Amino acid sequence: MENVKTCSKCKKSKKISMFIKDKTKKDLLKTACKQCIKIEYDLKKDILKEKRQANKRKVKDYNKRYREEKRRIGEYERDSHRSRARKLNAKYESGITIFKLIKRDGGKCLICKKKVLSRNVSGYHKDNATIGHIVSMANGGSHTWSNIQMECMECNTKKGISNGGQLRLF
Ligand SMILES: [Zn+2]
Ligand SMILES: [Zn+2]
After folding, report:
1. pLDDT band at 123 (very low <50, low <70, confident <90, very high)
2. Phi, psi (5° rounding) for residue 148?
3. Distance 149 CA to ligand 1 centre (A)
4. Distance from the alpha carbon of residue 162 to the mean position of ligand 2, in angstroms
5. What's the pLDDT tens digit per position in 102-122?
6. What pLDDT score does 90 carry?
7. Most buried in the list 1, 62, 65, 110, measured by CB within 10 Å?
């Protein structure tokens, strides 16, 4: 009697060595052959991978939308300020947001006195609210409540250009 077993999946008779051991089974072997188990495993792996990737995309999209919304209403602490302050070794006070600055400075640009938008338009808009540094960080100013003021995007941009600096918004 040859040592063969019929696979429950492909229904082929195969040598015992083509089956993985399984202590829970009566004959101590899995019912499906190695090949069938591998096929199934690969299939499951692909499905799982796809699911994971789809989920990752979803989380990424959500985070992006969340950040954009916060940025729009100005409740967003800009990472660019933090990294710039770190680079220039400038003092950095955390928790500064455009939203809080609008409240503190009455929603007006302190340079041209015009009203800034309470909800920023994405990209460039001359009336967008921006955090202006009274002494620019490039000139040793800090990112602190005492060194910032509400500025419209137009004024902030002009200031940046006349300072000879690179065009750096907010
Ligand atoms: Zn099989
Ligand atoms: Zn202005």
Report:
1. confident
2. -120, 155
3. 73
4. 14
5. 999 999 999 999 999 988 887
6. 93
7. 110
